[in-house]
Amino acid sequence: MRFDILTIFPSIFDSYFNESILKRAQKRRLVKIAVHNLRDFTTDKHHKVDDSPYGGGPGMVFKVEPIYRAVERIKKYEVRSKHKKNRVILFSTRGKKLDAKMAKRLSKYDQLILICGRYEGVDERVAKYIADEEISIGDYVLSGGELPAMVLVEAVSRHIPGVLGKRESLEEIKGSYPVYTRPEIFKSKVKNQKSKIWKVPKVLLSGNHKEIQKWRELRE
Ligand code: SAH
């Protein structure tokens, strides 16, 4: 599966995608993540990606032309590598909210093209004519679509067979049970304070798998 991210801040992605599960997934060629600088798709000498909004109001708006040009070009990489199903996604506060079901659905595509907005947003023609869908990651406003893109890439990748190793689990929609690890009893004593003694629930130490299972199901 291929992710193509369109952004004016490509270096934001360097550290996150080069650690842990996503690093391994790329190394094993289960996912390819390509980050594109929107400025590379401008044609004027100042590489202008934004302009002021029609009708007035604060802030700047991403122009449609560089995004159009970028998406057309990026879709062609897809042809070259014989990819079949693609989906163009625009991050927007007005979009449909990302959840596990949506992540699973998106994991069935061969190529996701992710458009990260900034400033006041993106010329509405991108949502109307270029993007297949608009996605929000939650009811709050961020400064750009870069964090949403990282969230989506990770949430979707976890559904791709082989991305999670044997020791990692995909909890999907249900949520998970509480977990504990050593020590059995955590103690902390600070002068003039009541000492803290925090214990692991006894049932988890019992070795009784039936009881452990029951305890976990109750807490899910
Ligand atoms: N004035 C706009 C805010 C734009 S924020 C509004 O109220 O909708 C700038 C960009 O950040 C957006 O175009 C979008 O791409 C991204 N963004 C901000 N918050 C987001 C969220 N919760 N989910 C997805 N994208 C978001």
UniProtKB/TrEMBL annotation:
Binding positions for S-adenosyl-L-methionine per the UniProt entry: 117, 137-142
An example Gene Ontology biological process: tRNA N1-guanine methylation
Enzyme class: transferase
Keyword flag Magnesium: no
Family listed: Belongs to the RNA methyltransferase TrmD family.
Protein known as: tRNA (guanine-N(1)-)-methyltransferase
Catalytic activity: guanosine(37) in tRNA + S-adenosyl-L-methionine = N(1)-methylguanosine(37) in tRNA + S-adenosyl-L-homocysteine + H(+)
Keywords: Cytoplasm, Methyltransferase, S-adenosyl-L-methionine, Transferase, tRNA processing
GO MF annotation terms: tRNA (guanine(37)-N1)-methyltransferase activity
Organism of provenance: Candidatus Harrisonbacteria bacterium RIFCSPLOWO2_01_FULL_44_18
NCBIfam families referenced in this protein's UniProt entry, alphabetically: PRK00026.1, trmD
Lineage, broadest ranks: Bacteria, Candidatus Harrisoniibacteriota
Gene name in the database record: trmD
Record domain tRNA methyltransferase TRMD/TRM10-type: where: 1-217
Main location: cytoplasm
PANTHER family from the UniProt entry: TRNA (GUANINE-N(1)-)-METHYLTRANSFERASE
Pfam families: tRNA_m1G_MT (PF01746)
Any one Gene Ontology cellular component term annotated for this protein: cytosol
Listed HAMAP family: TrmD
Its biological purpose: Specifically methylates guanosine-37 in various tRNAs.
